[in-house]
Design brief:
The protein has about 80 residues and is mainly α. The protein is about 45% helix and about 0% strand. The model has no long low-confidence stretch (mean pLDDT about 85).
Length: about 80
């Protein structure tokens, strides 16, 4: 579902979403236009805000404009000692 549809369901403006989520107005505008690549943290904040307001679980895959990476970031590993120590 599109983010704007969730806002319509809540009868919220973009400004209200900014206040409720703490995400910047510029970012919210870019999400709605489909121009933003969200950091995972902001995607989680946005979905948590919608979940609280709608009283049902909203996940990143439920919001059309949220693009999520398919692969998880591998663990960071210390490089092996090249000298065999």
């Amino acid at each position: 579902m599109r983010l704007i549809t969730y806002l319509d369901e809540l009868n919220w403006t973009q400004t209200r979403l900014v206040k409720e989520s703490g995400i910047s107005a510029t970012t919210i505008q870019r999400i709605i236009k489909g121009e933003a690549t969200l950091q995972r943290k902001n995607a989680e904040i946005l979905c948590a805000t919608l979940t609280r307001a709608l009283h049902r679980d909203i996940h990143p895959q439920d919001v059309d404009e949220i693009q999520t990476a398919k692969a998880e970031r591998p663990e960071r590993r210390k490089p092996k000692d090249q000298h065999g120590d």
